[in-house]
Amino acid sequence: MNCPRCRAPLEAHKPGGAVEVDHCPACYGAFFDAGELRVSLDKGTAKPAPALKCPRCAAGMETLSVYDGMLELERCLGCRGFWFDAGELQALRRLSGIEQLVGEPDEPEAEEKKPARSAPRGGGKKAASEQPPAPPEMSRQNNPDEYAAPVVKLEGRSYEHFQTSMPVTTHVLGEFPWVAKVGDIARMRDFVSPPFLLSNEVSDDESIWTKGEYVQPEEVWEAFKRPGAPLRPIGVGPAQPNPWSEQLGAVWTRFVLAAGVCVAAYMFASAGAQEKTVLDQQFELIAGQPERSRVSGIFELGGRTSNLEVSIGTNLDQQWAGFSMALINEDTGAALDFGMDVSYYHGYEDGEAWREGRPYGTAYLPRVPPGRYYLRIEPETDRPHLVYGVRLRRDVPLKRVPLLAVGLLLFFPVFMSIRSGSFEAQRWAESDHPRSGSGGEDDE
Amino acid sequence: MMTRLYTLFAAAVCAACVWALYAGAWGTQADRVEGVPKSVRDNPGTYRSHYSTYRRHYGGK
């Protein structure tokens, strides 16, 4: 039989049992006859794959999309065998949760999860089918790292403890520079400092440290000159670099600088502001008067175009007043119409004093050009005798401007921090130290 | 990329903040009306403001 992808002759081997799998030594694909898989793949959606012919019966093949499209593999339209490209078996293991994929689907151990460490891949020359011992249960007694959370220092980097496990050798495939046999148990401790991972494997007679570096899937795919694109990564790897945290420091630095500029601008504007009172006048309204509206004296607004603060103080007490106002330019007849509500209620109820509103109010008119002006005021109230004073101040810097600016500036760094935290939570979720519960840090 | 985008955004916010503080370009909503008659000063009732967004409030707990 030849590989349907690269036409290389397929090699048969038995990965830990009686079932024989045809494996391509060139592109690392594998062919499974119908019934050889423990996983049922009948529920996927299929589309024709005209470019491929079945290596077993030469019939056409179809592309089968399973697990909500997260995995696509080829199935023979004739003998119903399956073709897995390189990496697809690992994806099926991950998606199905079944470590040992080969065998009869109705065997009792089919649903049983095997130890996390999978059998090595590749063109093996020998296979062992002995039953491995069950891995020891990890607990606080045999895993002190879980609460000690040691830190390892190497080459100037601090590696945080990620996980301690007791992997058991369940299959041996291929050649090793040491004696490897089914049933070997080691104590494996992983420490991370993305993108690096330090692993310490301790057996009865030796302790081995290994340093690894996370490599992006695309880089691996390119290095091995694989066709197509790698599978989309699922989850977060222990040593996977956090794409958010890399830029987080720079963004927060820029936030501090920009917020400083806004605050400094406010302080500078406050120091140079006129804040000049241009009108301070009192009026009254007595119920029954035929005309409620009043006009102020004429006042001069000097300097550049700027804002105007309009403050009204009243003698309201358990009452409300609405003021319809117009700032009218004496020379041009142009006016700015605006309104203001003032209400003041208070009392004592159920042993508690309460208060709602205040007997005064303030409005800010934006960008008022210099000129000669007067103010027309038309109050409406339920108070029989309303006395109110109006005070106008020119060029008053508002605190809310830098506050709003800082709020806007804050949004992006906070968003990035949340995303970064979420990424880290995903990374540490599978570790001995989920980020929801923290442990102490001791140097080792 | 994100750092560069944020730098541009922060620069724009700073510029808007400085301009709003300098020009007093922030405040209450006001309607601009042209051609108010001169007689308003002598007889305020000849001009009625169009501004009436507020409503009578009876307040209290």
Model description:
The complex is a heterodimer of chains A (444) and B (61). By secondary structure, chain A is of the alpha+beta class. Chain A contains 5 helices and 23 strands. Chain A has a 7-stranded antiparallel β-sheet with strand order 1-2-3-7-6-5-4. In chain A, helix 4 packs antiparallel against helix 5. The longest helix of chain A is centred in the last third of the chain and has 30 residues. The two termini of chain A are 55 Å apart. The C terminus of chain A is likely disordered. With 61 residues, chain B is mostly helical. Chain B is built from 1 helix and 1 strand. Chain B is rod-shaped and about 60 Å long. The model of chain B has no long low-confidence stretch (mean pLDDT 80).
Write the layout of secondary structure elements.
The complex is a heterodimer of chains A (444) and B (61).
Chain A: E1 11-13, E2 21-23, E3 30-32, E4 45-53, E5 60-66, E6 71-76, E7 82-84, H1 88-96, H2 145-148, E8 150-154, E9 157-165, E10 187-193, E11 196-202, E12 207-213, H3 217-223, H4 245-272, E13 276-286, E14 294-295, E15 299-301, E16 306-314, E17 319-329, E18 335-349, E19 352-358, E20 360-368, E21 371-381, E22 385-394, H5 400-429, E23 442-443
Parallel strand pairs in A: 8-23
Antiparallel strand pairs in A: 1-2, 2-3, 3-7, 4-5, 5-6, 6-7, 8-9, 9-10, 10-11, 11-12, 13-22, 14-21, 15-21, 16-20, 16-22, 17-18, 17-21, 18-19
Helix pairs in contact in A: 4-5
Chain B: H1 2-23, E1 31-33
